[in-house]
């Protein structure tokens, strides 16, 4: 039984973060199968930091 998951992060956000973290080339060439689990984890961590920063009333700086 196969179900397609909907993505929470847009492709544009994934592209932006992969460029910031320096693995955009690997992502383009090999897809996420070629990206290390550490880099994927760092991508999620960065996305969470960005989301927290954009919460109303949040004045944290990273």
Automatic annotation (TrEMBL):
Signal sequence, start to end: none
GO MF, one annotated term: double-stranded DNA binding
InterPro entries (alphabetical): SASP_alpha/beta-type, SASP_sf_alpha/beta
Any one of the GO BP annotations: DNA topological change
Role of this protein: SASP are bound to spore DNA. They are double-stranded DNA-binding proteins that cause DNA to change to an a-like conformation. They protect the DNA backbone from chemical and enzymatic cleavage and are thus involved in dormant spore's high resistance to UV light.
Protein's recorded name: Small, acid-soluble spore protein, alpha/beta type
Species in which this protein is naturally found: Desulfosporosinus orientis (strain ATCC 19365 / DSM 765 / NCIMB 8382 / VKM B-1628 / Singapore I)
Organism placement in taxonomy: Bacteria, Bacillati, Bacillota, Clostridia, Eubacteriales
């Amino acid at each position: 039984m196969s179900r397609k998951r909907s993505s929470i992060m847009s492709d544009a956000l994934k592209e932006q973060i992969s460029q910031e973290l320096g693995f955009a080339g690997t992502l383009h060439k090999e897809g996420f199968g070629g990206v290390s689990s550490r880099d994927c984890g760092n991508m999620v961590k960065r996305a969470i930091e960005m989301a927290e920063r954009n919460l109303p009333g949040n004045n944290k700086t990273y």
